[in-house]
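note to self: the first set is below, dont mix up w the second
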Amino acid sequence: MQYSAVGAGWVAKKKPGSAIRSIKYPLFIALIAVGSLPIRQEKPLMLTVNKQAAWDAWLAHTEVSFTTSSVRFNKDTPPQIEHRTEWKAVAWKGEKIHTQLLIWGRENIKSIKVTTTALKEAHGHVIGSGSITAGFVQYVITDEFKGGCGYRTSRNFDSSLVADIINTKLPAIQLAANTVQPVWLSIQVPQSTAPGIYSGDVFVEAGKKYTLHISLSVADKSLPPTDQWTYQLDLWQHPAAIARIHHVPLWSAAHFTWMKQYYTMLAGAGQKNITASIVDEPWGHQTHDDYPGLVRWIRNKNGNWRYDYTLFDKYVSFVMSCGIKGRINCYSMVPWKIAFSYYDEASGRDTVFTQAIGTPAYNAFWSVMLKDFTKHLKARKWFSITAIAMDERPMAAMQSVIALLKIDRQGLEDRTGRQFSSRYRAGRGRLLHRLARTVS
């Protein structure tokens, strides 16, 4: 299955025109644009002499063609593809399949529209047009990958437009002269579909009407619903990015309404894991937006600790209601920057704990929380599906944390140590049920 990543968190930094590789980037990656995204108009392209020459050599009329779903096409370069007016595909019952079609040329076209017919089989069986979606692919500004991800000075990295957003809610789009407009086409084959060959048409209105054909062979095989898949899809969610792009307050009712559309779609793609931050900024603010924690840490005036799980419970329950309920991955005891925020009642202000991993102070800081967190998770009946998650952290740091989970023989082993770490000894496959280490 191929899906596009919405650049609400980090974007996939692949050069336009190159093959799409598997992506494991933070942080919320939405599959298809939902609702009415407030997308800003792209700036005019600055065509180089060579690119302009390529367009000048092109015929003046508009071209429409099917192409592969595995390539991100440059917006400002004529595509070098074999012209095809028919999409021949094979699918199982219950499968969702995808392709792209391209529209390009030297003319300005004020409005492009794409519609589809139902797919019909010789014996009268039908896949309704409601099972077919067409989304205009839109471009975002990114910089070159160049040496990998991480902290960087923007002036040292060239920028470009990259195909990223699949906007299924946009009824029409404008095509500027000397540009390419990809359209993402998807067919969700119903489970009840009878095997056979199904045919239908795609109509593209781009100055004039173009007709393309679909021939779909449905095999007598069934793909189970995504909630029954054992495959562990784990695309990290980034709630704050959704709030920003839709201009709603973080954790407001409107924010949850927008998140529901994204998360339901994510569950439909097979997502099993909830990304839950139990500390502020587990990735050291490598993301454009803040990544706030879901648990409020409070140090009482007498030096004892208490923890407010109100937002954690609300968020996890919400994500589960969207169909994502396989595992709760909690980030992280080993963040990218050791700076754990808490509210200190004695001083009346927010404070930051910065003691290094493995020190007595660090162990004491986390031991109290883990015992309390374990008790809370068991009360919510979430303990068996919760993992302390780590992302690309040094082995020594992770081993120190694992050792901490085994230290307290007066109860922590039974409540936390054994649950969170005993499977570490049993091997990597079983480890993933209790302790998640994400490796890119």
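second set (the one i keep forgetting abt)
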Amino acid sequence: MEITNHRWSEKRLLKERQEVLKQWPTGEQIIDIDEAIEYHKSMPIEHNASFVLAKAKKDKKTLVQPRGGVNIVDDHIQLLKTLVTEGGADLLPTTIDSYTRNARFDEAQRAIEMGTKKGNGSILNGLPAVNVGVNELRKIKEQTDAPLVARTCAPYPRLLADIMLAGGYSSVEGGGITCLMPYTKTDSLGKSIERWQYVARLMRYYYDHGGIELHRESYGPCTGVLIPPCITIAISILECILDCEQGITNYSLGYGMGGNMTQDIVAIKVMEDLCKEVLEAKGYKNIELTTYFHQYMGAFPKDEEKALSLIMLGATIGALSNASLIVTKSTHEAHGIPTAANNAQGVRVTRNIIDMLSGEKYGSNDEMKKEEIMLKKATKSILDRVFEIGDGDAALGTVRAFKAGILDMPFSPSNYNKNLLISHKDLRGAIRISNPGNVPVPQEVMLHETKKIEERAKRHNIKPGYNMLLEDILAFTGRN
């Protein structure tokens, strides 16, 4: 049976939840969902991500959130405290380890026990939230003073999200498309969307039975490598629609930095404007939309000064785009998992640039207007075709569109992705589509994209292809 975009009944949610909670013993700790709702009611409103983001948007402020997560709870608490005291983070992350993201809880447990036995401390690449359980998560909540964000990026999010929500987390990052296509090869896209429907419907339950406004966020960067803005925006809007159907009313559209200031600033504006337009047309009312700008997610320079410069560029673009929040990086991205101090530095530098640019605007010009027109046309064409092939259904359309190559994510390992679309950078570092594959990019837009790539090819005496692609991937590393 094909996936469809229809609101789950409460009966279906609770029936499936009974099975979800059996996936790991800590599921027994959260059987009483009403107790979890009461726990959220006891939290200060300033610890609710929906409230903080809505207020920031009203006040025209850009917030800052880093990434970060380690597998020892006390160490994670210290990490989060450092991000606040030394960095000034507005929302606090809990990045989840790879085993937990894929519901491999037994392997996560073995890694925890091995680390404890050998005295190696944190050996996972994030917090194994399911294994540590709700009481430990509430310990994190009660020793921090900002909204907690579950940065899951999980193809298998159900028990993970359930436990983290019960633990006091008020925001969950991820989605059925953006947490599957960049990370897995054989997992079903339709099943992934269905698992994330569970998460969104569960979050709506908190509102229906307790008035708790919870926040969802699409993971904008996707694979983080040469993703054309029209692809990012179309996917982010589709994930928003899927969540709104399940009752989510506070949603952040995600976008990953490409590196060209004009293109990225225009993309943030187009993403929000077009999403509002589509939601209105689909009948979704009173949705609080915000935007997340992710600092560069591609290959980072090893040189610390170059890395810091790249972070500063991302901070500048995010601030001038008026994004609701900037997700920061650290100068040690190319070396491995950053320390708390490195992470805090990225937050602090980003906050300083936001403050310095307060009130500044990136003035509109003919180039920006042209970019906006072309980006809207390309994104609308893709979305129109997705809805057409799905008979108006966003979930069905998404699955069929990836199968047909109408949606195509560069460098995705997934068998559900055609990988026909090829993109390059132009002379100014903007991402352009070289070969659209089966993506329905209008002819006018393709002529514009082709012209931009040809200008670079002529100037640098390089043809579109492998060598140009390699240059693009390594553009900010200093190694090309």
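remember for set 2: The chain is about 50% helix and 10% strand.
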